[in-house]
Design brief:
The chain is α+β, with helices and mostly antiparallel strands and about 90 residues long. It has one helix at about 50-65, and strands spanning about 15-25, 30-40, 50. A hairpin with a 5-residue loop joins strand 2 (about 30-40) and strand 3. The longest helix is centred in the middle third of the chain and has 12 residues, at about 50-65. It binds zinc ion. Zinc ion binds near residues 8, 10, 13, 42 and 45. The site of zinc ion has 8 residues, from loops.
Length: about 90
């Protein structure tokens, strides 16, 4: 019982496994995606955790402003307006 495996701080689950994840960050009014982030992911609730060094590197990337020249690829993402989906808020 002395094993020091991680438990999920979100749900308390013990199925926390290393994973390479991608995450989206808002930087000013730009949305950027960072992939291949080493993380721990909870198999029960999907919560992702980064260790201190990973957070440091992400902060460094943010500090560099996610320079366009460093991007490995680009994606286009669909944009939705919440208002379009609120019943009664639209026109006809
Ligand atoms: Zn969890």
């Amino acid at each position: 019982m002395a094993r020091s495996f991680m438990t999920c701080t979100n749900c308390g689950g013990e199925d926390v496994q290393p994973a390479a994840v991608k995450s989206a960050f808002w930087h000013d009014d730009r949305l950027v995606v960072v992939e291949d982030i080493p993380a721990l992911r909870c198999g029960a609730c999907g919560e992702q955790f980064y260790d201190d060094n990973t957070v440091l590197v992400l902060d460094l990337m943010r500090g560099q402003g996610f320079a366009e020249g460093q991007a490995s690829s680009h994606v286009s993402v669909p944009v939705f307006s919440f208002r379009d989906h609120v019943p009664g808020a639209g026109g006809s």
